[in-house]
Batch of 2 targets.
Target 1
Amino acid sequence: MTRPAPLPVAEGPYPPTEEMLNEPVSSEDQERGKAELRAAWKTPQGWRYISAVNNTEVGVWYSLTAFGFMLLAGLLALAMRVQLAFPDMTFLDADRFNQFFTMHGSAMMFLFAVPMFEAISILLLPAFLGARDMPFPRLSAYGYWCFLIGGCFVMGSLLFDAGPKAGWFMYPPLATEEEGIGPDIWLLGLSFIEVASIAAAVELIVGALKCRPPGMRVNIMPLYAWYVMVVGGMILFAFPPLIAGDFLFELQRSFDWPFFDPERGGDPILWQHLFWIFGHPEVYIVFLPSIAIAAMIVPTVARRPIVGYSWIVLSAVGTGFLSFGLWVHHMFTTGLPQISLGFFSAASEAVVIPTGIQLFAFVATLMVGRVRMSLPMLWIAGALAIFVAGGLTGVMLAIVPFNWQAHDTYFIVAHLHYTLFGGMVFPVIAGVYYFYPFIAKKLLSERLGRWAFWLIFAGFNVTFLPMHLTGLMGMPRRIFTYPESSGWGTLNLISTIGAFVVAAGFAVFLYDLLRPKSRQGQIPRNPWDAGTLEFSHDVPEEAWGVRSVPYVTSRYPLWDQPKLVERMDAGRYYLADAPDHQRETIVTSVIDAKPIYVQRVTGPAWITFWAAIFTGGAFIFPTFHIYKPAIVCGAFAIVCVLYWLWTSTARPPKEEMREAGLGLRLPTYMSGPDSVGWWGMWITMLGDATAFASIVFGFFFYWTARPDFPPADADHAIGVWVAAAALLGVLAWAATMLAREVNRRGNVKLARLALVLAALSAAAAAGAAWLAVRDLDPVSHVYPAILWALMVWLVVHLCAGIIMQCYCLAGSLFGKVTPRHDADLRNVTLYWHFVALKVLVTAAVLGLVPGWLP
Amino acid sequence: MLNPSGRDALLLYDLALVMFVGALVLWLLVGGLFVYVTRINPREMSRGLAEGLIIGGGVLFPVVLLGGLLVYSLPLMQAPREADEGMRVHITAEQWWWRVEYELPDGSRVTSANELRLPVGRRTGLILNAHRVIHAFWVPALGGKADMIPGRETYLSFLPEAAGTYRGQCAEFCGASHALMAFETVVMEPDDFEAWLDAEAQDATPPQSEEATRGAQVFAREGCGSCHTVRGTQAVGQVGPDLTHVGGRVSLGAGILGAEAPDFVNWIAHTETLKPEVAMPSYDHLSPDDLTALAAYLGGLE
């Protein structure tokens, strides 16, 4: 048996010289390249259009859907404003009002703000980076369909008067004790969407790290890409605690495991911690992408490169980190010790610094430039005015004693809408005006845009400025009515009038956005004279994105590299053709963006659509406590995903190398850290590990916060079985590693044997974990309940690991995984590193920690 | 909090004023700067100046300002957590009303509901609990708020400085009738307070008029006593508010109605309309005569 030759690596001249770039491309080559690319990137026509997966299609659907949910949530707000216009109104009853405010907040956060960031990023990021598509287009499509199904399910519950009504924060015990299916719809429906959000975040991070054009080092990539990485990373660490919380919460609602029930050792405050560890970063997850849009618009308007690029990057990263240390300022009134209040107060104030740096960097850029007040800039100016006001009230609210007065009043309602309108809505609308020529190859109306701006800006302030005062006069949030004697009537009436002015502004904006523009004719290619790559796209539109992937040496290539567009159009740069009629994009190294290989990108497919439908079933049926169809749907979803992976990812290529242009020959297959799939797995696992850590945090939270944890006479997990689970789990991991190593050395038979052994020991480990806690009664107390929860979490991951091992085994048997083409096996090994960690931590918590407890 | 009448609320009022003026000045400065560089003087300025703005405006200025603000404000956390001066009240939030128990120096407790009475000039400790779901206790004129959490105890203290009646309201969303969970805080001169507390500790006064006597019979017949307590009678229920001195209170239904006879009638006959999802059923099957009799009886329990 001979050791197989290693995979080829890139060869040929790089970077390209000016001489090479000056060489003309023959017109036959140009025409051939265009024809091939056009064929490869053809958008499906007719009813097949919905099988499209290209980022431009999915991004537009995603944005419009998120915008649609925003309008619906806005209508809910209008109904609430009518109810509150006068004292003792009877327009909405208490029950419906409570459903409406719960759904307004939930929808704005989960169905608008976060998805909107992901939608815009999916739409724009490849263009900023001169890439042809996202690295995993089918994942974007899958995420979109999950979002659509989940969003309609959650939103639709209102039509049946069955919506959740315990607030978007779902505090137990109110939400755990609530009758009906409202909280289940919230928990399962939104968990489903959160999974889709994490999927999109993974893809965006990999896109920004690996799909940049050759030469675009990290320190010259557009600021937007930096923000995508920061925000993607935040989603990865912020959403999992909420998913873990949802997991515990739903276990309590469905099976009465008492995680938040103080009568049986639980604690409602644990939910508040998990919720706000998600909830505060969430605010910055919403805010930073909008700052990123501003960071693209401001230099264009000032016609100068951004001032303080590194300061902005550092601040964005700093904001990301700090945002995880502030969550307690949502809990200042829960009676925490003063020392923690002081700490979190100071940390909350500290976030002013990175935020301030970013804002002042924009002002500084405007200072050094010669400003042209275009329509997008008008919206940015409005955003600045509103956001600064919201930020200043935020500074006040971070002061603990003031917070004790203002918490849960209309002052907070005013504050949060100032930050979110200023920090999200206005910049996003600015972005719509700015990027519309890029997206639709048409222009929006300047006149209607100004009307929309002034209506929304004025209406917003009329609505929310008085609310500061209403709150200070004593009006709490989330009340469906108030007495005349309170004296809040006039201010509320003013707010209601303002809300309708805002609505009128949005109507104008919506009309401008959707009105037919076919008479407009062809627009200029770069109407704002921007310096970044997205405005190099062809007008009229071509589905291929960039004609050829450029070699970039500047932050503002369209300003600083004068012949760039001409050369791109001529197909002078990389990947100017598609000889196999396959979709491809170029993958580069993380720091220096040196070309590594050419990635096959997946094309239109129905399988993602079906996978999303079945995943939806797996989440939606349990809402009604119907479990059998849910299990069937879950199984179908897994089968769909496996089929999708099997048929379209990491298949050994026909040709090992590809002429990429400019004399560069690039491999067409990569495995391990050079490939995008490995990065996708690694990043996903970080998020997954965070969710696991949150459940472990729950265990230690109970231990420190509750005197009766564990109860004096508690039964513990059975030590022998815990030890067996640990050993077998580690054995499964070791066997997987062995399989990878011997497979690489060409010993395919031994690798297959090791995979069989790995799967068997993983199954045995799952069985042992179950036996260890089988005799404990999770309903009786939170201690056995949390042990069960850890066991369930572990077993689910072991089962997923077994499926992956079998997938690799099948791959080996059917020629998809070979000694040279082992990407699947390497990704699965990476997964198993994390499972091994979980096995050991779970075993320690189940088996060892109880022995150390007092 | 705009009409502060307690020591803590006054300090917070000053803090709020300082911060508001500061915020307004800062907002005008940033806005002015923006208008200056984009409209008034949109020429190209030097890069050094611009970078100075980032460091000065983004780092140095906030560090100094916020440092000062924290030093000034954080010590204000102390007062509302200070121990009481010999007066403690235990308050338990229910859906959607308040169980109020005054702790006497000997440790015994006087039970009341839906109204808090406090003496002027003495710091009173409030020991806060909740039954079933989370609520929050808030009297803006007297100080900040504190959550009330099942299975935990939170603490807050007030030092009222002027006699008067101040509205309080639940501030944490607690279900359907969260909006209808208020109460009045009556701050009294110390002597008046002592006298009131002595009276409150007494058993209920027997019905004084014929109508009130009939009302007491309706009360017994309808089984009101299985949920409500009227001390000195057969009524010893613990589910709903203690009614021993309900006639002496300034509001009904947890701060949502007045306390005149028509209010009693309205409340008893239309409980579920007035307060959605409340535990007490509407007694709309009672005849108008029975209702007025009940109102006379309850109104007489001063």
Note: DSSP finds seven helices and ten strands in chain B.
Target 2
Amino acid sequence: MSGISRRRFLAGLGAGGALAASGLGVWAWRRDEEAPAPAAGSTPSSAEVALGIPGRTLVILELAGGNDALSMIVPHGDPRYRDLRPSLAVTDPIDLDGTFGLAPSLRTVAGEYAAGRVAVVHGVGLERPDLSHFESFHRWWTADADTDATGWLGRYLDATVGFDDPLAAISIGAGPSPALAGASSFATAIADARGLRPDVLDEDVQRALLAAWGKMVPDRPARGLLGDVQRAIGETLEARDRLTSMLAGGVRATRPRGGSRPVVLSMRDALTLAARLAAGDAAPRIVYVQAAGDFDTHQGQAARHDALMRQLDEGVAAFLATLDELGARDRAVLATVSEFGRRARENGTGTDHGTAAAHLVVGSQVTGGMYGEPPSLRALDDAGNLVPTTMLRDYYATLLAWLGVDAQPVVGGAPRPLPLF
Amino acid sequence: MVSERERIAHVLRRCSMGAEPDVAAGARSVDDALAHALDRSAPVSAPPVLAAPADEEAARDATRLRAQFAWWLERMVAGERPIEERLVWFWTDHFATGFQKVRSPDLMWRQHLTIRTHAAGSFADLLRAIAKDGAMLVYLDGVQNSAQQRNENFAREVMELHTLGRGNYAQDDVVAAARAFSGWVVHLPFRPRTRRPGTEPFASYFVPARHDDDTKTLLGRTGRFDLDGALDVLLEQEQTARFVAEKCYRAFVGLDPDARTLDRVAASFRRDWSIAALVEAIVSSSEFTSDDAVRAHVRSPLEKLVALAQAVGDGAIDPTAAGGVLRVLGYAPFAPPNPAGYPKGKALLGPHRLVHTFDLANAVGGAVDADARGTLARFGCFDVADGTVAAVASAPDARTRTLLALGSPEVALR
């Protein structure tokens, strides 16, 4: 990709004069020559990707542990559901279409669905399902591609912004999501509303420290890698200021807890931050949210999953309210991911790891409704799992369509996006 | 351009996990520093034994590795055998496995000890030991791979990541190798089905009934290969020696080898697979100490942590705090993000990684008792930009000076 198209991309984000003057984009001169050659075979790589539609943000919410989608998008119209879930069937769902209903705690989501702003995508799963958390997450992060080192969103970043804008993708959580790992780009990770700050030291020491740190950035950076580090420090301090202003006033900054245990935000706080970021000037294209909530409900699922759905609904409500408050409701779309769904038949007070699952896509620009074929509750696979009907690649291609991006080089194969946008 | 002292420091930064500041300050020459770094004769305390887990919960409890991680960190910081620690890390990254999937501190620690045994020995022995290693068998699904149900994960990765590199094998070779590797399982206590009479806990063993004993064709060779037979075929390939030698060259020199150098080094490596000889050939080349090689690598968070502890001198590392910060920085011990290992290069210069570099001070107390230049020298940095020196000098106290040096552009490189 030429430097010109990258600059256009940044300009398209609304990052005009201020960013250009402040030195963002300094990585460009090294990126082109160092970008790795596309790998052999059909593996997606940092091939050319259309830059996409400016001013749009894709927010990914990770439901870690394997969300029991049968308790979220409840197939209450199918009597087989109660056979499989004699004690765990959700008995009072909010009906959507006579066949499916939402978990009773998803009141905000239900209201949005009625207003045509929520899409339910049925049966999302892997071509060769795997029941391990780690392996399944790995495949979700990489889009089940034959590559280890890059995530699907990282490849999108590689092919578009590269090292140019460190805030093009922001991960909210303990560290950057592997989905954002690129070969020639980086994503910024923030734990909470404090944004880019060290977790040590009191405020005064920190301020003095960072001020002195900035003095290590010379007007004319050194040649080679040393100059790259000097620029990176400058860009980091700049990114920090931009983030601080985007995050200001939203969520109370979490107090550092002394030690070095990572802070984990609630879905409500994390999604409020995500909305503030999406509403900001030069908003990130991607916000990846890893919030509190353990969806691995082997035991005690009834109460635990209901609580998780309540947290999810609070998160969605806070997300939409924040976008509305900042006049940015048309700028962001929220989509869920989870490494797998859960076993169709209950096991004691919980459910085992499974395969396909329904997912939610929320936003004012979404064409609401049901998408994809709901997996049959009768034709389960040998292990008693739902058979995926929407391939992961197609789900991702659907989400990339929101960004206006050509999905093929990012997810590989021949993706077929669903018409949500 | 590069001063003699900086070149001495460079040799030590590349051949150890830290900066070895005492040696850097005292060495008379580059050769002197190199001799120190390559010396593997100093005594080292025995690795701490991981007591057998009392119950199933303990068998999956990662915190049991705390003392082991502390001992490992202490080896990096104490620097008794600098090159050995550098190589242990190199192979830990090369043969990456992670607790996220292995879920067994005992298997992770066994693998660490296996790597430690062979780190400077024979690559062929190391590869054979890793292919039968319990952590690897779990991490890349070797335990799922049988004649009845093939799993290609390890077969693919061993060729892509460990021996040949991408593009040097076909899918048919992956299938053939997977068939040859089939039949290995791991004895996990508290999982009665994984046990066979005579197997010790956490050991791997071969089950003939699970092995595909038919003829395979792997990389043009045909035979009834088993695991070792298939590895022999991989080791016969010139490309394996080139791939590993090239990666090793880049790790030490920080530059791409020219074709003639690579041919020479790889050919010699392939004769006896001696890792020590390979390293010696690489670090005694003129490229290794050339100006271009100096500071051609980005220091990883782990290397910064070790450098900080060495700079402070008597600063003990709190392994729990260290583990927490390293996790935030994407360098969690025993938990690389994926089978390709830990992030490297410019990916380490992302904003959050630079900012949270300062958090490494959570794990190491104390401060360097010196002026700005002296403080930077304790991190193995002698040729330093004036702006960096002035910024460090502007700090009000020794602790802040130490932190600023830790976050400086010069210390970010090695």
Note: The CA atoms of residues 170 and 188 of chain A lie 5 Å apart.
